[in-house]
From TrEMBL:
This is Protein CopB. Residues 1-35 are annotated as: Disordered. GO terms for biological process: plasmid maintenance. Coiled coil: none annotated. The keyword Ion transport does not apply. InterPro entries: RepA2 (IPR019661). Pfam families: RepB-RCR_reg. Keywords: DNA-binding, Plasmid copy control, Repressor, Transcription, Transcription regulation. GO terms for molecular function: DNA binding. Residues 1-14 have a biased composition (Polar residues).
Amino acid sequence: MSQQVENAVTSSSKRVYRKGNPLSAIERQQSHLARKKETHKELRVYVENELKEQLQLMCEVYGVTQSAMIEILIKDALGKQKHKVTD
């Protein structure tokens, strides 16, 4: 019986969680969006259904998000524009 009492005492003396209370899903999302807003701007657009489907297909092929694909396309267009201006 003395072992049972000792186990009961030692199980309650576990290490305390030191990082504070864990954040809820909503709090984590708000934190993520706040960090994202420091370096990014939101863009809302309407495009033709066919173009949207083609964008989704391109994203699947390249394995990137739609946001990343739009960034790639803008950078590509700016790169082409630079070459035209310098020529």
